[in-house]
Amino acid sequence: MSATIDPEVLQQLVAQAVKQLQTEGSRPCAAAAAAPAAKEEYGVFETIGAAIDASAEAQHTLLFQPPRTRQKWVDVIRKTCLKKDVMEIISRMAVEETGIGRYEDKVTKNTAAARYTPGIEDLITDARTGDHGITLFEYCPFGVIGAITPTTNPTETIINNSICMIAGGNTVVFSPHPRACKTSIFLVQTLNKALVEAGAPDNMITMIRKPTIDATNEMIDNPKVRMLVATGGPGIVKKVLSSGKKAIGAGPGNPPAVVDETANIEQAAQDIVAGSSFDNNVPCIAEKEVFAVDTIFDYLMINMKGAGAYEIKDRNVIEQLWRLVSNEKGGPKVEFVGKSAQYILDKIGIQVDDSKRLIIMEVNKDHPFVQTEMMMPILPLVRCDNVDQAIEWAHETEHGNRHSAMMHSTNITKLSKMAKLMETTIFVKNGPSFAGLGIGGEGYPTFTIAGPTGEGLTSPKSFCRRRECVLKDMFNIR
Ligand code: NAD
After folding, report:
1. Do 279 and 230 share a structural domain?
2. Residue 114 half-sphere exposure, CB side, CA atoms within 13 Å?
3. Which atom number of ligand 1 is nearest to the Cα of residue 447?
4. Averaged over 345-372, what is the pLDDT?
5. Which residues does 43 contact at the CB level (< 8 Å), separation at least 6?
6. Residue 474 falls within a domain, yes or no?
7. Taking a C-beta distance cutoff of 8 angstroms, is the pair 476, 467 a contact?
């Protein structure tokens, strides 16, 4: 999954794409003069109402297309995103526009989303037959779906949601984060163009040119939008859940990793550093704190340093770092979210090279680095008396999000205890967090992990309605 385009050529392609959006397109993020939506806008509209109307029209066409045709559109999305230039542009643009994450990791995530998000095979029909005939239970479209996407995974979420929703026979109106506006426009237009060229209905994937909170509110209230999906922080999840419509909420986490004395410590260290530093720690599933038992604590630290972590020992420097990266409300300062360890350390006068992927430190359980979802490559470690204390503290620190957790152990009793107690959507045993998304683990990727509403790792059927179709007294062949 590595990138091979010449960096200079890539730079030119990104510059070209940004320039194009800044001229014709970029009424995008600047003030928008209300121009009528032209067909060549490829899914990008001046008003949210126009984006929804076009989406409804597209959905009406899609509704009468058979599943194999929907699979064809899904394949077009996959193929388009996997084109080398598209993949590299969206991955580069996302990092440049949002200032979040690492290019190589965006390539990995976008590739996983494009290649492995489930398609129509996810929609399995059940049938019941008996003396009175046959009844089919099928996954059917909701219609137009309004999907709100985060700054942290702007393109991954658009790719993943589009595949799932269109496989399910829906169309989608995206409301991206304003800080990922240009990247989202580029991707929506690229996908629509490819779909239309392949013969798909126009505007299966739409968005407003200039995303705002007002536009999102309007989308939430629009009666043509039959389902809402929010991938983001607690505010937007709460908002869609209070909308009175069917809503899927994929909210925040604060995933802990527990390491006990029975674990393969060298491997655990590798896995934790890899998972926690992946895309500079912005994935909602990434290890955000570690609880390790005392007897292996120091050895784990040594191995983590060997795996690319940089340790800060001085208490004063740890506090200086906290003041640097936190805001007055005790949350992460936006300008440090998704920045590299090298960048963050430089701001406190510590120079390291880019092979240092993660900043680690020993703190106590109540330290704000432990208790807060920071989304930056800073990983606090807490020394615990024993595995039961580590599990208890991990549970407490996850704050009931029931999102994700990891454990490194060979003690099946304790692995089972933690898995049960945490009640998280994703629980990874003896692997990095991203194994929970099918990256190096079994399963499939999703970028909308719906803990609060219970769909879990969303797939096409999450965006469908269960309907039944009854034929009385016939077609029972038993
Ligand atoms: P965010 O909540 O700031 O923004 C998410 C989206 O909601 C954006 O499009 C934003 O514009 C919109 N939004 C936020 N508040 C709104 C409001 N009041 N009205 C209308 N729209 C609003 O989150 P973010 O910083 O972009 O993303 C990071 C958060 O998302 C983290 O908490 C992370 O854990 C979570 N996340 C969860 C998942 C998951 O699958 N569960 C996936 C990715 C990110």
Report:
1. no
2. 23
3. 40
4. 98
5. 51, 54, 188, 189, 191, 192, 202, 203, 204, 205, 206, 207
6. no
7. no
Q: Which residues line ligand 1 (CB under 6 A)?
A: 148-153, 175-177, 213, 216, 231-233, 235-236, 239, 250-253, 284, 373, 447-449
149 C-alpha to ligand 1 centroid (Å): 7
CATH of the domain at 346: 3.40.309.10
- How many domains in the chain? 2
Q: Ligand 1 centre and the CA of 250: distance in Å?
A: 9
Provide the edge-to-edge strand list for the sheet that holds 44-45: 44-45, 205-208, 171-175, 144-148, 225-231, 246-250
Instruction: Indicate if 363 and 318 belong to the same structural domain.
Output: yes
163 plus 292 within the same structural domain: no
Ligand 1 centroid–CA 150 distance in Å is: 5
Residue 18 lies in a domain: yes
SS3 44: strand
**What pLDDT, on the 0 to 100 scale, is given for residue 478?**
87
Same domain (yes/no): 285, 138: no
> Are the C-beta atoms of residues 150 and 338 closer than 8 Å to each other?
no
Residue 136 lies in a domain: yes
Confidence of residue 58 (pLDDT cuts 50, 70, 90): very high
**Residue 387 lies in domain:** 256-440
The model's pLDDT over 371-387, given as tens digits with 9 standing for 90+, comes to 999 999 999 999 999 99
The answer to whether position 24 is within a domain reads: yes
